[in-house]
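ARCHIVE CARD
SHELF: 3
SLOT: left
DATA:
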Amino acid sequence: MTSQDSFRCCKPLKVGSRTYAYYSLSAAEKNGLKGISRLPFSMKVLLENLLRHEDGRSIAKEDIQAIAQWLKTKTSEREIAFRPARVLCRTLPACRRWSIWRPCGMP
């Protein structure tokens, strides 16, 4: 899957003999998304996801710009298409506690 890369932030990362693509938020900020370095971490995750999946149909340039505009009012009525690629569990001990209840019939 390739992105339209409207903010020219897709950068190569060479690891050994393999090359990977990543979306640099600092490059996106330099190329039109002013102030995004001040976004909360969770909003940066959403922004990177939108940059990676921008296709012009389900995720348009305007959707990406809406994340940057959030900084002005700290609110938005705009819906975005979030496509999670990975699930992170930052509180691993809590996940372990939940998992012990599954054999007991708890959700």
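SLOT: right
DATA:
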Amino acid sequence: MATEYLRFGAHRPLPVGPTLRAVDPDLELLARVRAGDEGAFVTLVEKYHGSMLRVARNYVPSEAIAEEAVQDTWIGVVRGVEKFEGRSSFRTWLFRILINRARTAGGKEPRNVPLGDVEPSVAASRFTAAGAWAEPLEAWETDADDRLVAGTWSDTLRAALDELPSRQREVVVLRDVEGLSSQDVADLLGVSEGNQRVLLHRGRSRLRSLLEHELTARGR
């Protein structure tokens, strides 16, 4: 499969200086991909395959279609690598291609989603000035936050994420699971940073509420 992808590649070196290479270690691999290095391509695929499937799954109705969107994304990467100028990280560029492919495959709703108060939010008093929970539930810290950071998708967490409105779920997955910055998520989803913060707050609040209910039901 890697050879089939790479036959689309160009061979002109990436226009990336040493500073950008220091910031984004993937750029060295990307330069090797452009030179036809199949091993470098396989390394990138192995590194991002799981993350890409998780992100794509938010837009499509099945794992099989998510897999197709991911494969189509890698073809797009190789075909479009000549246009990559290093203005964003490779991961951000990759996810931008992926989201566009997945949206097309899944036929999801348009990007402009109203942010009206469609559900109650958690009281501001439950957060510190830094945006963290003032009194985190012990089981939430051990069972949920670690899973989010590690990207381990238990049935309970996956079900809770599926309960979120689609745009909130997108932001929570990209920020809390995949670790993208606020600016990157806003750019990827075509929303302002302010709207991104609102969506993240509401998504985290609703997710916590759902998980608190589950943990309480388990007697934890």
